[in-house]
Every structure is written in C-alpha cells, then in structure tokens.
C-alpha cells in the first residue's frame, strides 16, 4: 500500500499544480480593467478540449492506481516469484524522458510563435515515443526468450499487463500527436488552436512519463525502498 499512497500523492501534487495554473485562486472582484481582459471571466472558463483531457487523465490515473494497488497486494502471496527487469527498460526510460522534453520544447516554441521549433519538437517527441514502444517490444522478446511467459507466474502477468496498458495509452497519444504535427505542418503561422493542441500533447506526455516512472519503480522494487527512507526521515 505504500506504493499506492506514493502514487496518489504524486498525482495529487500534479493535479494541484495544474489547477493552480487555471487561476482558480484568483479574485476577479479585486482586478482592475475590462472584464474581458482577464481569463476565466467569460462564458467559457477553460477550453473544452483541456477539460476533456483533465477528465481523461483523472480516469487513467485511477486505472493505474488500481494496477499499482493490485500489484502491491498480489506480490505478498507465496506463489509470487519476482522476475528480472530487462536492462533495456532503463534505455526506454531515457528515451521517454527525451520525448517529454521534446514536447515541452515544442510547447515553449508554440508560445513564442516559432513554427520551426514546434515542428522539430513534435517530430523529435514522436520519434522518441516510437523508439520507446519498440524498446518495450524488445523487452517482451527478451523475457520470452528467457522463458518468462505471461502465464508462467503472477509477476510475469502483471508485468506484461502493466506495460501493455501503458503502451496503449502512448499509442493513442501518438495518434493525437500525428494529427497535431500534420496540422502545424500545413500552416504558416501559429494559431491559438494549434497552440492548444501542442499544449495538450505536452501535458499528456508528461503524465505518461510520470506514470511510467512510478511503474518502473514498482517493477524494480525501489518505490517501497523510497517510501521506507521517507518514513525513517520523518520518524
């Protein structure tokens, strides 16, 4: 359960930060100027797409929390036999970090109106994400060649299921990223709609990176070690 509490805590911190960026704590009655000069005072506070993404991330976060909870409880039973973690997962993690950084670069470029920077960031992020998925398939192949099949052990089943669900979420993100890249490629100037699309892709990529880091910590066992260290420091 320690890993579950840690995961929920991280999600709560990220959600709080994101909400703080939406001017929920602002006091419009103390602001000076025209009412239309301040965000959040019109008929629509947030873009519908951003609200929809927030809801989807909340649902996805709950899904992965259930996976983490089930994994933590199942590993305490006697038939659980931990499986080795393929070294390629560390390479995959680095590639996913690069993908998230590239998307953030594209978002910053979009805010500056730098079309070339946006295209480079989107292409680099997409290429890195595809490399990550290829690396995950390579990890599966290595485990299968070593005799670690899905039905051989509960630990094996959880590994394949967790990595597959995360990979499916990333694949869905690649579809949206491809559409955004094609839209930016056809335009000569940055529009508010394109800037929003890049921002949504960036938020989604940061979420997937966060989830993967938690899952990797769970699979390698250092998540519980980190929680134990925190308990010792607080005690």
**pLDDT averaged residue by residue:** 83
User: What is the H-and-E element order?
Assistant: HHHHHHH
| CATH level 4 superfamily | Cytochrome c oxidase, subunit III, four-helix bundle
Gyration radius (Cα, Å) is 20 Å
What kind of sheet is the major sheet? none
Helix/strand-derived category reads mainly alpha
What would you call the quaternary organization?
single chain
End-to-end separation in angstroms reads 19 Å
- CATH level-1 class: Mainly Alpha
Indicate the CATH architecture.
Up-down Bundle
| Overall domain count | 1
Shape: elongated
Walk me through what this model shows.
This protein is 75% helix and 0% strand. The protein has 235 residues and is mainly alpha-helical. It has one domain: Cytochrome c oxidase, subunit III, four-helix bundle (Four Helix Bundle (Hemerythrin (Met), subunit A)). Helix 1 runs antiparallel to helix 2, helix 2 runs antiparallel to helix 5 and helix 3 packs antiparallel against helix 6. The chain is elongated. 26% of the residues are buried. About 7% of the residues have low confidence.
